[in-house]
Amino acid sequence: MKAMILAAGFGSRLKPWTDYHPKTLAIVNGKTLLQRNIEYLQTFNITDIIINVHHFAHQIIEAIQQNNGWGSNITISDETNVVLETGGGLKKASWFFKEDFVLLNTDILTDMNLHNMILQHKENKPLATLAVSDRNTSRYLFFNTKNELYGWKNIQTGEEKPQPFTAEINDLTRKAFSGIHVINPAIFPLMHQEGKFSMIDVYINLCREHSIHYFDHSSSKFIDVGKPENILNAESLFN
């Protein structure tokens, strides 16, 4: 199985570090986020990885070259001309994938059992399986009783997609998305958006006609290392 690490973002929440460095090279207990996620994938025998780059791209490429990919086979998806966000970045790299693959954000750390998530995905055969947990956030994904994605809601603004739905549906489960996906490449012909766009928007556009499942990892360690204060929290969780 192959994987993609999304590392092209500006990391605005990690300023001032990201005024001079890409967020993927932020350090937690002596290791960069990039190294940690490459090594995380290695624990599940995933060593063929494509990484998209934009912000301080040369620093990321140098780090990969100097460390020989930390033992993995690394391909670069160059977005130096324009950053394409999660959906656009994946679409640009679609040529890399011929079978089910893993997609993950560079600024998350977890000890989630990815093997179990992949097994669930292969057993149920949805278009995509999304890692989620029961944690507090401002934006939630909602799933029906078949564990299929039904919609997205910003609980601060009340915005709901693909249309207002929670007032009419009582048997939905809300979960916080963790930035880890297992995806069937059959999704690529269905991604009609061009340029810069989000994978969440892709899923929301497809969820009423295609099966998109969740994998609950609430019992595992997880942290979004997108904020400076969370670097310290991450250091207490991950050696």
Short description, anyone?
With about 240 residues, the protein is of the alpha/beta class. It has 6 helices and 14 strands.
Which key terms come to mind for this protein?
6 helices, Spore Coat Polysaccharide Biosynthesis Protein SpsA, Chain A, single chain, globular, 239 residues
Structure, described:
The chain has a single domain (2-237), classed as Spore Coat Polysaccharide Biosynthesis Protein SpsA, Chain A. Strands 1, 4, 5, 6, 8, 9, 10, 11, 12 and 13 form a ten-stranded mixed sheet that branches. Strands 2-3 form a two-stranded antiparallel ribbon. It has six helices and 14 strands. Helix 3 (85-92) packs across helix 5. Strand 2 (27-28) and strand 3 (31-32) form a beta hairpin. The chain is globular and about 55 Å long. It has 239 residues and is of the alpha/beta class. It has helices at residues 33-42, 57-66, 85-92, 114-124, 199-206, 228-237, and strands at 2-6, 27-28, 31-32, 48-53, 73-78, 101-105, 108-110, 128-133, 139-143, 149-154, 160-161, 173-183, 212-216, 222-224.
So, the CATH homologous superfamily? Spore Coat Polysaccharide Biosynthesis Protein SpsA, Chain A
> How many independent structural domains?
1
The percent range for strand residues is 25-35%
Class, according to the CATH hierarchy?
Alpha Beta
Helix count equals 6
Q: Mean pLDDT score, rounded?
A: 95
* The CATH topology: Spore Coat Polysaccharide Biosynthesis Protein SpsA, Chain A
What is the straight-line distance between the termini? 27 Å
- Give the quaternary arrangement of the chains: single chain
CATH architecture: Alpha-Beta Complex
Q: What structural class do the secondary elements suggest? A: alpha/beta
The succession of helices and strands, N to C, reads: EEEHEHEHEEHEEEEEHEEH
Radius of gyration: 17 Å
What is the total tally of β strands?
A: 14
The major pleated sheet works out as:
10 strands, mixed
